[in-house]
Every structure is written in structure tokens, then in C-alpha cells.
């Protein structure tokens, strides 16, 4: 399993685009926001947590398309399905690799972009922890969506349509926790809900994604 | 004699053929009676004026919109467990009806909301949940359209329906947390004291009955169409194999 993880990470790093693409996209979206809503710092600091969350979500979506289709097209997925690791494990590793290549870098640059958007200083801790709790769920749900649309030519748009509604609970609680943190309100409840949803998704989605993948490999 | 007998397409078509005239007729009668009664023979509400009459379209459509998804969930489960083709075709047939009902609910709600709340749209939990439901329907239909092989399409859409149900319920309660509501609470419960007054209640019940019959008629009709479509495809496939 570790070999698979290292392979996925190496592929993402060396194929170019996979690793930096989501990050650059995130950066550009965040930088474009002040141009579109105006540079007033009071407005920016109010919408900053929501914008950062939305940017993270879209950046996550961007790289889902390549997540399984590349392995599917060159037949690597068929080989992997015959390996001793159960398919549930393989999709979990895929989700983990996706999170390390997109979620984790976003997490690291989010404070920097928070400064650009005048995010109040108190809000940084909550923003980081909400992203850290929420992005694994985004990756895991994304793997399910990718498994669902694997056999479809040009399934990228369909993938977004299928996955976006599934992202709503995570987005609501994540952005709510970040917003409350930024405004100095109590943020424990949404953060706990977010953790609950992520736990739920991580516990169940590998099985569903594996079932879907098995159907597609049939 | 059990329900599972109708998993046989021939028996299902015979049953739906026998039922359909009654369903269409019943729906027509109920809707004509209910809507005429509701629109022309009920008093105006003392605060809402005549806009209250939109309830006769809004509430039944909302009821069907939710229950159509529930029906799809049940029939998808039956397909996954017992592999009855009629079951999953019924789910496929119900989806466009459900999406239409969701749209009717959203549009009539907007028309009602404009004079009452002063806005066409508010990010109220109920309204938002319906919008989310709308996207789930769209995703389900789009997935059906995108996959060529009918059996794997049936499997994948069924799983999407199950997962979607879980996330729809999650979203339903998440949006409650996210924003306070403008929409009123339930006012048609069977066990509550505060209900809509009887003058509005009775025609509303007739309208709900009419919408249910209409939904059943549409689903039976569309399922029949899907079954026949499958037969045509099978015949064409056989023809091309011989030739």
C-alpha cells in the first residue's frame, strides 16, 4: 500500500501539472476575488473565510478528473484490482494521494492568501483546522465521483455535476466554522459537525467507491 | 400472488394497461374538482388575500417531489438486491417527473414568495433543500444519459441514488444549521392541532390526491415506454446479428 501511495505521489509530481495545478488555480481564484468585488478591506475580511473554502473546493474538483481515468486508460487499474490489496484499500490510498497533492498544499498556502484577503488574525487557526478537517472528506467524496464517471468519455463536467451536491454539507460546516472563527464567535459546534461528516465519509465512502469501481471494471 | 410477480415485464404491462385509464381519469377528475374548488370557491385568506390559492399547486408538487425521490430510492434498492429490471426502469421513469415537480414547487414558491415575503428567493432551509434536491435529480438523470451499457447504467445510477439520499438528508439538516427559516413549518400534519383551516384543507386534500394519481399514471406510463424501448433495442440487436 505504501508503494502504491509513493507511486501515485511520484506520478503526480513528475507528470507536471498534477501537483501545482490545483495550487495555482486556488491562488488565481483568490487573487481574482478582490478584482471582482472591490478592494474594500471590510468587505474582503467578511467574505474571506467563505472565499477560501470555495477556492479550496474548486481546486479539489479540478484534479478529480485525472484521479482514476489515467490509471483506467492505461490498464493499471485492472492490474491493481488483481493485487492482494482489497479495492477498498486502493481507493483509500488514491484519496490519500489526492489529498496530499491538493488538500495539503492548499492548507499550507491558505494563511498566506488569508493575509491577502484581510482575514482577521484570530481566524487563521480556525480556518486551518476547518480546512484540515474538511478537505479529506472532499478528496474521498471525489474518488467516489471519479469512480462513478470512469467509463464515460469526457466525464469531467458530469463529475462536477455529481460531486458538487455531495460537497454541500462539508462546505456548509467548514465555511461556517471558519466564518465564526474569523468573527470571534463560538466555533466548536460547526467544527465538531464537520469532523463528524468527515469521519462518516472516510468510514463509508471507500466501500461505496470500491463497489462502483468493481462494477466499472466488470 | 405476490408483488414480485409484477417484476415480470409482461405481467407489469398487463397490470399497468389495466390501471392506466383509471389513474388518468382519477387524476383528471381530482385535479379538475380540486383546482376549481380551490381557485374559485374558497374565501380569500384574511392576510394573504388571493395569493393563498397557489397552495393548491405548491404543496402537492412539493409532496410528490420528495416522495418521487423516495420511490426511486426504494426501487433502486430493489434492483440492487433482487435484480428486477422493471424496478430500476421505474426509477428511471420517475426521475424526470420528480424534476418537473421540484421545478413547479420552486417556481410556484417564488411566485408566492414575491407578494408575501417581498422576495422571489430567500436562502431559507426549505427552499435551499429543494434546490439541492433539484441538483440531485439532474445528476441522476445525467448519469443515466451518459452511460451506454444499460445494466451498468442501472447499477451506477442506483448507487448514486442511495448515496445521494444520504447526502440529501445530511444537507437538509446542515442547511437548517446554516440559516434561519422564512418558510412556515409543517401545517398539514395529522397529529398537530394547528392546521390549515378546513375550508382550505379539503380542496387541498383533493388536489394532493390528484397529484398522486397523476404521478402514478406518469410513472406507469413512462415505465411501460422504457420496457418497450428495451424490447425494440433487443429486437434490433437480434436483427443485426442475423444480418
Helix and strand element order of chain A? HHHHHHHHH
Q: Which range best describes the helical content of chain B: under 10%, 10-25%, 25-40%, 40-55%, 55-70% or over 70%?
A: over 70%
The secondary structure category of chain A is mainly alpha
In quaternary terms, these chains amount to: heterodimer
| Unreliable stretches covering 5 or more consecutive residues of chain B | none
The largest β sheet of chain A comes out as: none
Overall form of chain A: elongated
Biggest sheet of chain B, open or closed, and with what strands and sense?
none
Query: Termini separation of chain A (Å)?
Result: 23 Å
User: Hey, which two chains have the biggest interface?
Assistant: A-B, 26 and 24 residues
For the termini of chain B, the CA-CA separation is 42 Å
Task: Give the number of DSSP strands of chain A.
Answer: 0
Strand content of chain B: under 5%
Question: Which residues of chain A sit in consecutive blocks of at least 5 with pLDDT less than 50?
Answer: none
Q: Helix content range of the residues of chain A, please?
A: over 70%
Note the overall shape of chain B: globular
Mean pLDDT of chain A: 86
Q: Look at the structure and give the mean pLDDT of chain B.
A: 87
The domain count of chain A comes to 1
How big is the Rg of chain A? 18 Å
Amino acid at each position: 500500500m505504501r508503494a502504491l501511495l509513493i507511486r501515485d505521489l511520484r506520478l503526480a509530481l513528475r507528470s507536471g501539472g498534477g501537483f501545482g495545478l490545483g495550487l495555482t488555480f486556488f491562488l488565481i481564484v483568490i487573487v481574482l476575488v478582490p478584482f471582482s468585488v472591490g478592494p474594500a478591506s471590510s468587505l474582503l475580511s467578511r467574505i474571506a473565510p467563505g472565499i477560501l473554502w470555495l477556492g479550496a473546493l474548486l481546486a479539489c474538483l479540478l484534479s478529480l478528473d485525472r484521479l482514476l481515468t489515467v490509471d483506467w486508460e492505461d490498464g493499471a487499474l485492472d492490474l491493481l484490482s488483481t493485487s492482494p490489496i482489497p479495492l477498498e484499500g486502493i481507493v483509500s490510498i488514491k484519496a490519500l494521494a489526492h489529498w496530499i497533492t491538493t488538500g495539503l498544499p492548499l492548507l499550507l498556502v491558505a494563511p498566506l492568501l488569508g493575509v491577502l484577503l484581510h482575514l482577521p488574525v484570530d481566524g487563521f487557526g480556525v480556518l486551518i483546522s476547518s480546512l484540515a478537517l474538511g478537505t479529506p472528506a472532499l478528496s474521498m467524496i471525489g474518488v467516489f465521483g471519479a469512480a462513478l464517471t470512469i467509463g464515460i468519455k469526457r466525464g469531467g463536467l458530469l463529475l462536477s455535476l455529481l460531486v458538487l451536491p455531495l460537497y454541500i454539507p462539508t462546505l456548509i460546516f467548514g465555511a461556517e466554522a471558519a466564518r465564526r472563527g474569523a468573527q470571534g464567535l463560538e466555533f466548536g459546534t460547526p467544527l465538531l459537525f464537520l469532523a463528524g461528516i468527515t469521519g462518516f465519509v472516510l468510514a463509508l465512502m471507500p466501500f461505496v467507491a470500491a463497489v462502483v469501481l468493481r462494477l466499472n471494471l466488470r | 400472488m405476490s408483488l414480485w410477480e409484477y417484476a415480470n415485464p409482461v405481467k407489469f404491462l398487463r397490470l399497468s394497461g389495466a390501471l392506466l385509464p383509471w389513474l388518468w381519469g382519477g387524476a383528471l377528475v381530482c385535479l379538475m374538482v380540486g383546482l376549481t374548488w380551490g381557485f374559485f370557491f374558497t374565501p380569500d385568506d384574511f392576510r394573504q388575500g388571493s395569493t393563498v390559492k397557489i397552495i393548491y399547486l405548491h404543496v402537492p408538487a412539493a409532496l410528490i417531489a420528495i416522495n418521487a425521490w423516495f420511490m426511486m430510492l426504494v426501487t433502486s434498492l430493489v434492483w440492487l438486491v433482487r435484480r428486477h429490471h422493471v424496478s430500476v426502469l421505474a426509477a428511471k421513469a420517475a426521475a424526470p417527473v420528480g424534476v418537473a415537480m421540484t421545478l413547479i414547487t420552486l417556481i410556484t414558491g417564488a411566485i408566492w414568495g414575491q407578494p408575501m415575503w417581498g422576495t422571489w428567493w430567500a436562502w431559507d432551509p426549505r427552499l435551499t433543500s429543494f434546490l439541492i434536491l433539484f441538483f440531485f435529480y439532474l445528476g441522476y438523470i445525467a448519469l443515466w444519459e451518459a452511460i451506454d451499457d444499460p445494466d451498468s447504467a442501472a447499477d451506477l445510477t442506483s448507487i448514486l441514488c442511495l448515496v445521494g439520499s444520504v447526502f440529501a438528508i445530511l444537507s437538509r439538516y446542515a442547511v437548517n444549521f446554516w440559516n434561519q427559516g422564512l418558510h412556515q413549518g409543517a401545517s398539514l400534519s395529522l397529529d398537530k392541532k394547528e392546521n390549515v383551516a378546513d375550508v382550505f384543507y379539503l380542496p387541498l386534500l383533493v388536489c394532493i390526491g390528484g397529484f398522486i394519481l397523476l404521478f402514478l399514471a406518469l410513472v406507469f406510463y413512462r415505465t411501460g415506454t422504457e420496457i418497450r424501448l428495451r424490447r425494440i433495442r433487443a429486437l434490433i440487436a437480434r436483427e443485426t446479428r442475423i444480418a
